[in-house]
Write a structure and sequence with these properties.
With 134 residues, the protein is α/β, with parallel strands linked by helices. It has a single domain, classed as 2,3-Dihydroxybiphenyl 1,2-Dioxygenase, domain 1. Helix content is 17%, strand content 30%. It has a four-stranded mixed sheet with strand order 1-4-3-2, covered by helices on one side. It is globular, with a radius of gyration of 17 Å.
């Protein structure tokens, strides 16, 4: 199908996109992400087993976590999550107060208000920028 043909087909718009990350311990990750302001709106824990899945939300940001049955390799995470905070410096200070270890704020050309990096317990990279640059 050519690109001109594809552009004429009517497609209903998506309602949203929520990344789902494989993690070693869903409950541990839920606890860690709560320090970033995420709330677990839904979880699934089968009887006699550890938590298998969670749906998290923080304002307009959504994330699903699912337990992986295979070993995770932090160096092989080929996705990063970009979060927008209202006041990136204050958000970073809040994380430090909760004993998390975000990087220093840097100012790349696309982030004039700054951004910082923090890695979650499974090695996923989260970049946090300011809502002003969105």
């Amino acid at each position: 199908m050519s690109s001109s043909t594809a552009s004429t087909i009517a497609v209903n718009p998506l309602a949203g996109l929520t990344p789902m990350a494989h993690v070693a311990d869903v409950a541990l990750s839920v606890s860690w992400y709560s320090k970033l302001g995420f709330v677990a709106e839904h979880t699934w824990t089968p009887e006699g087993r550890p938590m298998q899945w969670a749906y998290l939300r923080n304002g307009g940001a959504q994330l699903m976590l699912v337990r992986s049955d295979r070993p995770l390799s932090p160096g092989a995470q080929d996705i990063l999550f970009y979060l927008y905070a209202n006041g990136v410096a204050a958000y970073r200070e809040n994380l430090i107060a909760q004993e998390l270890r975000p990087s220093e704020i840097t100012y790349p050309p696309y982030a004039k208000h700054g951004e910082f990096r923090i890695d979650d317990p499974d090695g996923y990279c989260l970049l946090v920028g300011d809502t002003e640059q969105r």
